[in-house]
Amino acid sequence: MSLETGPLKPSDAAAAADLERECFSDPWSLETVEQTIRRAEEGAGALSCGAFGVWEEERLIGVLFSMAVAGEGELHRIAVDAAHRGRGAALALMEVFFRWLKDCGCNTAFLEVREGNLPAIRLYEKCGFVLYGRRKGYYHAPEEDALLFRYQ
Hints:
Layout: E1 3-7, H1 13-23, H2 30-42, E2 47-56, E3 59-69, E4 72-80, H3 89-103, E5 108-114, H4 118-126, E6 130-139, E7 144-151
Parallel strand pairs: 4-5
Antiparallel strand pairs: 1-2, 2-3, 3-4, 5-7, 6-7
Helix pairs in contact: 1-2
């Protein structure tokens, strides 16, 4: 499988929103995806947004959305098409995320994940994130705790 990563473009918004609906019980709307991609295209500032994709044979199979402010990054969303999971797409997106963090001058990053999302937790731990907390009942549909991870 040959993967290509890079910034999302406005023309990718519909496919990215489709991935959101496939992967999350609380998907971002097409409008939110479009706004995030536009903010990411505007470049660095006091608050920077990241919007990245991974493609296989020109088909968008994964997305990652992030934010950076005051030297700290936050991974907001990462989603990979179900048929392409376990084949390196999420790791490729994480590599792009870490390069982007460095470019933004971030030396730490945070994320939260459903406690039952074991594949994501394994990915984050493999990438060097460390569990530091929990938010009880944070997620809905179904209700579940959020595990809080930090990277330094």
